[in-house]
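> tool_call: predict_assembly(chains=two)
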Amino acid sequence: MNTEDLITKLSADVPKVRRHAVGWRLAIGLLLGALVASAAVVSMLGIRPDLHVAMRGFAFWIKWTYTISLSAVALAVTAQLARPDSGSVRWVWLLAVPVTLLAGAGVIELVRTPPAKWLAMWLGHSWMVCPWIVLGLAMPIFIGLLWSFRRLAPTRLRAAGAAAGLSAGAFAATVYCVHCPEVSAIFVLTWYSLGILLAASLGALLGPRLLRW
Amino acid sequence: MKANEDELRQLMISGLDGNAADHAALLRHLVPLLRGFYRRRANGSEDDIEDLVQETLIAVHTRRASYDRDRLFTAWLFAVARYKMIDHFRRNRRLQPIEGLEEILIVEGFEDASGARLDVDDLLETLPVKQARMIRATRIEGMSVAEAATADGIGESDVKISVHRGLKTLMARFQGGGR
């Protein structure tokens, strides 16, 4: 095709783009995916029956603070990597803050618990399924983010894939909290984080293929 | 039809606000810019260059949401162009990258982004005279290494080493605290 014809064709369709379009698009993809993940939790796993009681408790909020803050940082990093001219990626180190705080809570918890109960506390009732459920719930969110990326322009595809996977995993963990009855900080630190890491690794693996444009 | 950063950015922002005529004008301004960009960086037939230009125009159009109005437009544009070129190399190895591509990209990308030769002059002044002269000759005025060596009456390896050291110093400064 002639370049001039191409330009004419492209200029036939010039929709408005709002300010902060990158953030909006990522937020929409994330929320659409999260909606599907929430529906899956409600229909297949069920909301924990004592949720309204748990929401008044400390353990539940530790979990949510951890997963929500991870999601926020991961999403900020994803937004940076969604631009071609992102340069150096800032704020990745902030991921260490919630992890460190939760580890601190875990240490306090261990000190207060007799060593005989440590293993039971660490493994909880669901350590074998928890990471896999988080990974599974991350899938629809990751797909939502892939949709977001269709109009965005990442140039470091592996890093962008990893960041999207991390966001999806952390948000999936946030959704999973409404089902999961585990209360211990070291449980969350290990098994939730493992699920989130699995999602990030999968994103890094698939990024170069799925995010090409 | 040489357009500068401010004009291009105005057109881009107007296009983002939904003005189709300005969007078309922007794309037309980009054609010669992109042709120059790719010709300097790839040894390929004119058809290959034109393919790349068209792919980049399509990308500028479909990925325009990724441009942040508060940032430099040319930096965004050349980041898109660079990505398209690397993608093109990977897909069909018809285009051959020019030797030392990375260095050229980093130095010229910076030049394009800041859109100011004055800055380049200032930066080159901070280097030893010979390094600055060799960078200017081979990277800005477009002489080959052999030509620069003859012009200055020194060896070719001397030219290469001067350019390399000079660029390295500049890059270190730029990637370090200079931002």
